[in-house]
Amino acid sequence: MRKDSRLVLALDETDGAKAMAVAKEVGDIVDAIKINWPLVLSEGPQMITRLADMSEVICDFKVADIPNTVRLIVENSVSRGASAVIVHAFTGDDSLRAAVEAAGDAEIYAVTEMSHPGAKKFTALHAEEMAIMASECGATGFIAPATRPDRISAIRAVIGPDKKILSPGVGAQGGKASDAIRAGADYAIVGRAIYGSDDPRKAAESFLDDIRTVNRAG
User: 107-111 and 187-190 as β-strands: parallel, antiparallel, unpaired?
Assistant: First the structure.
């Protein structure tokens, strides 16, 4: 994925027409559009291809299954135009390797810790271990929460400078884009605060301005 704005839109809209309208408004601002099951289940997998015509697409399917099923999901996502697929790391090294092999030239991002409070109960306790394992399996990068910037720093410390970190939880969940970037994230992921806004482009530009404060400082 390109790394120009360092902003990723999480397009969790379920109305296909609205989703496409928002994507057209901000497609030239964001580095990628992340889609999840709500949009795909309501509008069909063809949304991957439609959005891929205007932006890099990350399929945030959080795949957590046996290697063969992981392979089938990743292959189908990439064949429809996805530039990246998000998978869970807790499934182990065999499933992670299957994802990486199936992706080909596309990118695989492994979840180490999600952004909601419940993530602290289990996955956070093993996030660094999962990050090390997924790095060894060839994952491109990781998901670490913008709602807890210290956890981004912890993951960055164990994976080094070359792997990427995408940080969800900016905006509606309370995370701040500049805090995530400053803590070591490569991209800040923003959803409802952009696609739910009356002016999605203006909202996206405000997050971009916040990110630029870190870029200028660096």
Answer: unpaired
